[in-house]
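fyi for ur records
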Amino acid sequence: MESLKIVRGTSSSVDRSLPSQLEQACDWMEEIYQQGLYAKVTVNRHWSRHNPTISGKIARPTAYRWYLLRELLKLANKGAEIEIRPSRQRADLSSPDLLLQLDESDFDHTRKKVFLFGPERAELSIERLEHYTGTPAEQFQRFVLLTNYQMHMDAFQEIFPDCHRPAGPVQMPAYHQATTHNDGVTIVNIGVGPSNAKNFTDHLAVLRPDAMLMVGHCAGVRNHQEIGEFVLASGYMRADHVLDEALPISVPIAPSFLLNRYLAKVLDDRGLAYRFGAVYTTADRNWELTLRGALQHLRASRSIAVDMESATVTANGFRYRIPSATLLCVSDKPLHGAPKLPGSAQHFYAETKRQHLEAACEAIALARKEYPEGLPNSDLRAMDEPLLGGAD
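which gave:
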């Protein structure tokens, strides 16, 4: 077979054969990949005056089959014509030329394409994800929680005792509440700091998750905050600086309004205290030891909390069109005589870890119920960027 075409029937507005056609198309993409080639997907969107045809090459289609099925079905239902054919040889990940092939220094993520990433980048990122997490990419779910505490991983396992886990010790363990259509929840311990947050979300973006949610701890900096209260970010002070070249500091970064709405509803329903406000994300774990500069930034930004990952996660979510948000819990108040110390910290961890994870999972359940086909992300796209779906 040289190519496979998917065209909606003209007899009615709903073609019930399309899902089975697309299952067959994904099967063939996977077969092409196993034969050592990339599949090229071309989509002709007759309704677009400016960019009717978009195309792209697909690597490791099993890793995000759910996404291909969902997005291509949306296009086919609108009447788009879809063609799939074999393309070039798969990249040799051991080749000295690999980095030249996937260099994104001048890559325009807003350029119209059928998939956000080139196949070489997808190949490498999927390999990295599996190396870091110790689990197959196919087990990743549409909703991803990020943490830097093993206690949150333990709480997740208590909530989902049948979750898939790595067989042995790995750098960034991932646990997956796996479902048939990948609409469950994944949690990953990414470790501490903005460099880790950028590293992991760079690779996770290839799997096209519906949402990323940072579940972590923070220092509260307001007089009337209490240890154990929650923080929802309204925006971020990007003092981490790891994405400054990729995303100018002048670009406004805000969390997903919808995710924040679900988080606030869950916290309200549970009677848990929280604040909305700016989160100051720093790369300096000992920011309290050089206080003058940090205090100037905190006062100027009206920040209510300090952490080390939230702005980085959300900024990369913005770059890669993934709705993102933050659910932090105040663990210490170093400006008010309550630094994080062993005795009080352990008590705090034991008291809050379960309710923290439960609140995050409940918010995700609300998002999944209201938007079963994925959270809207048009606010994260360029003004003329369809990316598979879209009306342009």
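The chain has a mean pLDDT of 89. thats all i got for now
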